[in-house]
């Protein structure tokens, strides 16, 4: 495998990692982080009802949205550099 092919596969791994991160973790995290307490909470004095979305900590979000992109980026870096001659 020559350098151009290794670089192409490395960039493809980066792109796939970015897409997985955005769709499975980043979007849910952004909804959680950008939630506005004033617009999404019913406050009755002693009781407060919140409509804040849950933090994306389910197995799919963590594995597909965080772990797989890290593995893919590492794979892309290793493959993109090639052999140390």
What does this entry show, briefly?
This protein is mainly alpha-helical.
Structural write-up:
This protein is mostly helical and 85 residues long. The chain has one domain. Helix content is 64%, strand content 7%. The chain is built from two helices and two strands. The protein has a two-stranded antiparallel ribbon. Helix 1 (3-33) packs antiparallel against helix 2 (59-81). The longest helix has 31 residues, at 3-33.
Percent range for β-strand residues: 5-15%
Describe the largest sheet.
Answer: 2 strands, antiparallel
Structural class: mainly alpha
Rg for CA atoms: 20 Å
Q: Are there runs of 5+ residues with pLDDT below 50, and where? A: none
Number of domains: 1
Number of strands: 2
Number of helices: 2
The run of helices and strands is HEEH
The gross shape turns out to be: rod-shaped
Strand order of the largest sheet: 1-2
Report how far the terminal alpha carbons are from each other.
Answer: 14 Å
Average pLDDT confidence is 86
Percent in helix: 55-70%
Assembly state (oligomeric): single chain
Which tags fit this structure?
mainly alpha, 85 residues, single chain
Topology:
Blueprint: H1 3-33, E1 41-43, E2 48-50, H2 59-81
Antiparallel strand pairs: 1-2
Helix pairs in contact: 1-2
């Amino acid at each position: 495998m020559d350098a151009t092919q290794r670089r192409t596969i490395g960039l493809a791994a980066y792109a796939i990692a970015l897409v997985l991160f955005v769709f499975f973790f980043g979007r849910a995290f952004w909804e959680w982080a950008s939630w506005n307490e004033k617009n999404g909470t019913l406050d009755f004095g002693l009781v407060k009802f919140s409509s804040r979305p849950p933090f994306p900590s389910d197995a799919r979000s963590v594995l597909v949205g965080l772990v797989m992109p890290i593995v893919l980026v590492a794979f892309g870096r290793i493959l993109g550099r090639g052999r140390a001659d």
